Fold this sequence. Notes:
Structural class: mainly alpha
Number of domains: 2
Bound molecules: heme C
Amino acid sequence: MHDKNIFWTFISVIVASILFSYTARADDFSDPIVNGKDEFAWHCASCHGEDAKGTGKLAKILVKPPVDLTQITERNGGTFPHDRVFKIIAGTEAVPGHSTFQMPKYWERFRHYEGRRGYDTAEKRIHTITLYLESLQGK
Ligand code: HEC
């Protein structure tokens, strides 16, 4: 009888520590990604490149390689089209004239994380990324 109690105490300590390490790890994943630079490095650089110039690892396997995101203002006649860029990232607007839209829709993706600790709303995150892209113009 006594042995059995020790056995179950032992088991529950193990289960508790597994659960604890699992939640601790889950917390690590929910670390806030607070700035546009990190969001870009995490979500966009694989295709667009760390420098946003279209040199990401996945760029060569895309049907149409992404354009240089540091020249958006230049291509738009000198003004940064904040609204349009926001919508392109959100996925609510396809890139005009591009029929091969292969970019993920970040609005849907970020919505899944809304309300989780450390995550901003999809709107705020896309806004932050848009501002980050604006800061890269002409670089
Ligand atoms: C899976 C690859 C991929 C990922 C990841 C990706 N993009 Fe794209 N992106 C593309 C492709 C491809 C295009 C060109 C669209 C086309 O030709 O259909 C594009 C186009 C764009 C454009 C329009 C450029 C222009 O002026 O025409 C913007 C802005 C943009 N991406 C921003 C982002 C941002 C910001 C992220 C991260 C939140 C991101 N992209 C993640 C592949 C990707």
